[in-house]
Amino acid sequence: MSRASGRATGASPWEDALRRLRRNRLAMLGLGILLGFVVAAALAPWITSYAYDKTNLPYGARPPTRAHLFGTDELGRDLLTRILYGARISFAVGILATTVSLTIGVTYGAIAGFRGGRVDHAMMRVVDILYGLPFMFFVILLMVFFGRNILNLFIALGAVQWLTMARIVRGQVLSLRTREFVLAAHAIGAPPGRVLVRHLLPNAVGPIVVYATLTVPAIMLEEAFLSFLGLGVQPPMASWGSLAAEGAAAMEAYPWLIVFPGAALTLTLLSLNFLGDGLRDACDPQLSGRH
Amino acid sequence: MVGYVARRVAGFLPVLFVIISLSFFIMRLAPGGPFDLDRALPDQVRANLEARYRLNEPLGAQYLRYVADVLRGDLGPSFRYPDRTVNELLGLGFPVSLLLGACAMIVALCLGGAAGLLAGAHRNAPLDYVAMSFALFGVSVPNFVLGPMLMLLFALALGWLPVAGWGTWRHLILPAFTLGTFYAAYVARLTRAGMLEVIGQDFIRTARAKGLHESAVVLRHALPSAILPVVSYLGPASAAVLTGSVVVETVFSIPGVGRYFVASALNRDYTMVLGTVIAYSALLLVFNLLVDLLYAFLDPRVHVQ
């Protein structure tokens, strides 16, 4: 992004998009909230004086007080501290798994679109079939049978979430590959791989960035879903999903245990969706306000 | 048309075969087995059990036997509930899950469709903003947060609806809304986008020009085209609803298939897990075919052949 805007003077498409994004108040609000969460998660040890895994049974399940702003859980651990440390896991899984899905989706879609014809048809048929399958059931199987650790978690989630990315990239590449500048690149003898990487993909960056932004909340939701089922992050570590699971189990007696993690998760997903929608509108003005 | 359906149905077989093989080998190549209990069994008991369920045969032979059984419609005995077959257990749980999923989809389509239609027809009016804010909220709140919240409010605080369980239509309301809200929000966004796409087109202007009432323009002329994106979303949505039912059935203690899926997997109840995956996949394949036929029916530009 910086390279494109650094080279151009005046209003490059990127600068245009950035300006539109900056004018979008909801997107900026979302960005602000997200940055707030990221900073708070990063500075967690300095924000709270409690350890996320230190239990204190006599002080279990107390409602919010001045010492424990969000109360304590049933084992007496400070809930604010657990939410802050949980944010690290949730964000890390969201970003890493998005990277995995990005890599698979872009590679797959680019190859399908670039080769075209029968290869494209076969590859997209596979995507169509996978789309209709209860994919999360396979993720559940993978998590159950191959160990519930974070590494497996983000590989499994990333491996599930690449289908739409592949479709988007394939569509972009397919429509770009007959354009003059691509023909020119072929004509001067650039090898296919170089045409794809240097000429086609950079022109598809906009939709890729937009969709990747929208993939992060989807994956965070799935991580939370798995952790809720006890298949994600394992205790004493916590992610927002596992905190919500603990809270849901105890909510009749201690409602704050579900309210705070649930609110943190919802607020973050809402912010990511604001930002993703804003980015899409900014990159594609014709679509503005359509979705 | 008949030929198209026949070819699609024939295409189900290889897909199901891949699904069965994938799940079978994921489970069997992983360490652990159904009889690795906390307290180790005597060797002889264990050997007898494994012989009874034919777990002592080579993996390849077990696989071939399983596939042959499935082709005959027999999903085998459950490892965890020794007196029950998987067919029986699915027969009990599947109708429950299906009813819940269908209600959630109805909530999603009615609520989401109406909200999207109103928002699209009143673009940038306050109604539009309100509907779209709810939609954005709806795609951001996870169902395992929404479910306990609704339960806290409508069952525990207000006492209007039962907290959890299964039996009457009143038990269905909270789970159906919990499961359907995300998709209602997504459907609302799709419908609104579809409406905006369609509403500027010539045939809508023609409909208005000949003096039709605005509601007739929207409902009779714009709607069938505007909901096409919603129709193509139905396939992925139904897959996601089935996945979500795992959580919602757990939260509301509903005796469906989803609630037991994770437990079956953790208990290494191989046949039960495979049976559930096969049943769900088959259901989704059939449903996707119906969706494609519906799409061709609604969009005159698409022909099935």
The proportion of strand residues of chain B reads: under 5%
Helix content of chain A: over 70%
Q: Which term fits the overall shape of chain A?
A: elongated
Oligomer: heterodimer
The main pleated sheet of chain B reads as: none
Which stretches of chain B are low in confidence, meaning pLDDT under 50 for 5 or more residues running? none
Shape of chain B: flat
Structural class category of chain B: mainly alpha
Low-pLDDT parts of chain A are 1-6, 287-291
The helix content of chain B is over 70%
Mean pLDDT of chain B equals: 82
The chain pair with the largest interface is:
A-B, 45 and 53 residues
N- to C-terminal distance of chain B: 6 Å
Characterization of this structure:
The complex is a heterodimer of chains A (291) and B (305). In chain A, 71% of the residues lie in helices and 0% in strands. Chain A contains 14 helices and no strands. Helix content of chain B is 75%, strand content 0%. Classes of the chains: A mainly alpha (291), B mainly alpha (305). At the A-B interface, helix 7, helix 12, helix 13 and helix 14 of A face helix 1, helix 6, helix 7, helix 10 and helix 11 of B.
How would you describe this structure in keywords?
heterodimer, A: about 290 residues, mainly alpha, 14 helices, B: about 300 residues
SSE arrangement:
The complex is a heterodimer of chains A (291) and B (305).
Chain A (H helix, E strand, L loop, with lengths): L1 H6 L5 H11 L1 H18 L1 H4 L31 H37 L1 H15 L3 H11 L4 H11 L2 H14 L3 H8 L4 H9 L4 H24 L11 H10 L6 H28 L8
Chain B lengths: L1 H28 L13 H10 L6 H13 L14 H36 L4 H13 L4 H15 L11 H31 L2 H8 L4 H13 L1 H24 L5 H10 L3 H29 L7
Helix pairs in contact in B: 1-12, 4-5, 4-7, 4-10, 4-12, 5-7, 6-7, 6-10, 7-9, 7-10, 8-9, 10-11, 10-12, 11-12
Could you give a quick summary of the protein structure above?
Chain A contains 14 helices and no strands.
